[in-house]
Amino acid sequence: MANSGHVAAAADPGFAAPIGERYFEHYVPGAVHEFGEIDVDQNEVIEFARKFDPQPMHVDPMAAERGHFGGLIASGWHTAGLMMRVLVEQYLSHVASIASPGIDELRWLAPVRPGDRLHVRVTVLSAERSRSKPDRGMVRSQIEVLNQRDESVLRMTAMNLLLCKPAG
């Protein structure tokens, strides 16, 4: 893939239902799912950073070469955006996802560089049905973004509200 806006689809045999038919009940605690491959493109790294995180290590290859990281690196926010694209296209239900009340413990663990190929590993930590609104539940997931050497470059815990499977 030459464009990081494109995510390679991968079948995930760990889910009992395809993403268009996936409900709260399909997110099983302990399940681990791996998705996507995204090539990190230098032009997109610079373009994103110019708009949202214009620090020299993200926007200026010459300055970045002399800096702490020894070369251009992607903004952590860009990496999080790439991860989110994978989650929306391959993990979060297209019929039952309501919203996310937030994330916990977002960590950028290693630099992401142009030319890296990223993938996402999601572990379902818990799935609890709402007592006050029994038509939905909260799924907590640990999300890791890994590079082509399987080094973790981003880790966070996400919370997602999902509708339960309709009766009948």
Protein described:
With 168 residues, the chain is an alpha+beta fold. The protein has four helices and five strands. The longest helix has 16 residues, at 76-91. The radius of gyration is 17 Å and the shape is elongated. The chain starts with 31 loop residues before the first strand and ends in a 5-residue tail after the last strand.
Order of helices and strands: EHHHHEEEE
**How do the strands line up in the largest sheet?**
1-3-4-5-2
Q: Which spans have pLDDT < 50 for at least 5 consecutive residues?
A: 1-11
Oligomer: single chain
Offer a quick outline of the entry:
This protein has 168 residues and is an alpha+beta fold. 22% of the residues lie in helices and 33% in strands.
Layout: helices, strands, pairs:
Layout: E1 32-39, H1 42-52, H2 56-59, H3 61-66, H4 76-91, E2 97-108, E3 117-129, E4 136-146, E5 152-163
Antiparallel strand pairs: 1-3, 2-5, 3-4, 4-5
Key descriptive features of the protein:
168 residues, alpha+beta, five-stranded antiparallel β-sheet, 33% strand
